[in-house]
Amino acid sequence: MKNSRREFIKLGVASSVASIASRDVSYGSKHTNDLTEKIDKALAQPVLKAEFFKQPVKIAAVELLKNGKQYLVRVRSTDGATGIAIANPDVMISTYPIFLNRVAPFFVGKDARELESLIEGVYLHNSNYKWQGLPFWACLASAELAILDLLGKVAAKPIGELLGSIVRKEIAVYRASGNRGNSPEAEIEYLRELVAETGAKAIKFRLGGRMKYNQETTRRDKALIVQTRKVFGDGMTIYADANGSYDIPMAIHVGKLMQEYRLAFLEEPCPFDYYDETKQIADALDIPIAGGEQESSMRRFRWMIENNALQIVQPDLIYFGGIIRSIRVARMAAAAKMDCTPHMSGGGLGYLYVVLFASCVPNAGPFQEYKGIDKSLPVTSDTSSLKSENGIIKVPSGPGLGIKIDPEFISKAAVVSA
Length: 418
Prior knowledge:
Number of domains: 2
Structural class: alpha/beta
CATH architecture of the largest domain: Alpha-Beta Barrel
CATH class of the largest domain: Alpha Beta
């Protein structure tokens, strides 16, 4: 095998060392090795710290509100406590009937302290497992985040303390571009603007044509890989996301060019559910392969980790069903000495949820995805500017989500009905 992936991670990520799992686990085998035992042990440990709660926190209501394009989930306890989260507006506009008919009613009357078991319960309730995928799990994530905000306020603890130990109070971010199809020169100028605006020490751009490629996209890809390194220099960590654009030969071809120019990872080189193909690409390259944005199955994440099909695991905190499920993926990744760097859904408070996740997950990786702030949301924090300053976002340390939503914005929101 060529140079190990460790060398590429060291070159691509300043002062960061990541370990890559061995390739002893074969496809289709019944895993009985040390890694399997470590994963089993990690999954057996509870995530939510129940010891913070001496009395039941009974849920009286779970409501969906809408103000403009924004959707808010409000959870009330029978004792009068309230938790509020912001849903991903681009998802909830299409999936709100699932939230109202299949997710929200299940939690009413339940004890919020049992959130971990409730997540499993709602999945099985009324055959909801037949609906699994982004529409169902994104609805559950929105409910989970509001319940976590409620629990944090009841316990007077930030979410990071409810779900683990605070390991970071400041989060380094990478600024992700959503552009595709512009010229290499235009994209580099845009990346310059993003870096100037945020102070980020890491960037990510997009490759391919999204689930396809042609001669034009390939010329752009190659030019971007070469020019971003030349323009930003060795001090910048650079990632690239193909969004499933390549087949195996093209992914390997592009991946080797990325290796030459010391990029830090190649994300989703082929369609996300091409699991065998993803592993073949990973086996052929030294650059770490990242993925998991579209994944909804805990079992398939486990397969990818055990078989080293990915070296950086990226559950989306909304698409995958929330922070608790994503922490379980992170624990599996930690057993394999991999980073779990979540994908950030754009819109809403996606950046905040990523920051809170990274605050309590030791193997979250050196940089977290950041796509900017939705300025239409009147959200503040007493303990954080909620902005990237010199490439760093300070983690809010207040109870729950650690934020305040303008009361007038909430009062003007209308209750959404099925």
